[in-house]
Automatic annotation (TrEMBL):
Assigned protein family: Belongs to the peroxidase family. Classical plant (class III) peroxidase subfamily. Belongs to the peroxidase family. Ascorbate peroxidase subfamily.
Transmembrane segments: 7-31
Gene from which the chain derives: LOC107004239
Compartments reported by the entry: Secreted
Protein name: Peroxidase
Annotated PROSITE patterns: PEROXIDASE_1 (PS00435), PEROXIDASE_2 (PS00436), PEROXIDASE_4 (PS50873)
Iron in keyword set: yes
Source species: Solanum pennellii (Tomato)
Amino acid sequence: MEKKIIQLLFICYIFHELIIVSSALQVGFYAKKCRAAESIVQQEVQRSFSTDRSITAALLRMYFHDCFVRGCDASILIDSKNTRNKQSEKDAGPNQSVRGYEVIDRIKSRVESACPSTVSCADIIALATCDSVALAGGPKYNIPTGRRDGLISNPSEVNLPGPSLTVEEALKIFTNKGFSLNDMVTLLGAHTVGITHCSLIQDRISRFDGSMDSNLFTRLSKTCAARNNDPSVFLDQSTSFIVDNEFYKQIRLKKGLLKIDQQLASDRSSAGIVKNFSINPKAFQQAFASALIKLGNTQVLEGKFGEIRKNCRAFNPPAQQKKRQPRKKSFRPKNPPPRKGSKFSIPFIAP
Ligand code: HEM
């Protein structure tokens, strides 16, 4: 009898855990818990944007680099000095030039004053990115929240795609995370804003091979020859601060900078998607909104997992870490469902 009760309790426990793990993020998660949260994020992003429009690029990249490593759990925000072995994701090569941490700090500090230990750093990244995209002329979408912050940040887990991969190689990394070719081409549209350092396009400008517009080649060769340490150049040659479909037009004119960007326009698998976005701005805006929401669903910690950090750069002291990291499980970020009230309510476009 006693054995049966224990078995029953165990089944109830597993069922309870499953419900918690599979509970979905939701738009307006903080509406009751912390009414001011979303407006604080909006105000701080607006404030940053008004002095430096490049904050959109910074946040978009931070969001991607966070979500693709251990899921959207703010593991990218942990400072090395705040880990046991003095190393965090920030130390990994691809993260060295990620920026925008101060904006997240400012938001977190205000949100903590308003509602202590309530709003996760992972949600702050997602909300801030969403607001910054809208400010830069991109789609206005509602981003679901309810993520919790992770308890691990390890540079050896940072396996992000490099700029010189082929479309096929990059796609393998995206597919492993549950994204399709269409998702990948759409998300790479984030290169409609921001910069790259010359060192990352050396392979494209050291020798003219016809894959780049010749005027752009000459200009970049000169700019990048400057002896100051590793100059930076805009990824989108036309509207460098605006989230629009210009990136796709540019790569069709051989004006892509990163090898992966340029290949999207010529690779047989992706050229059609690029062409469609280049002539259909609305299709890009809708797909981009859906893809950013889907990115934000990657491997999230919810319910009783992870924690709500008090300081985004450090894990909470062990005594406060009651919640555990779930075991690594396979995951598929869900395509966002159509939601009422959002400007774009179409489902994600399948390839
Ligand atoms: C195959 C996938 C991708 C590759 C290989 C890639 C590679 C790169 C590289 C090499 C840079 C320049 C970094 C530097 O010089 O400091 C860059 C910048 C950037 N990436 Fe990506 N990226 C990819 C996907 C994405 C995605 C999915 C997003 C967002 C959704 C994104 C957003 C950005 C932004 C906004 C910048 C400019 C950052 C800034 O101005 O600080 N990238 N990317």
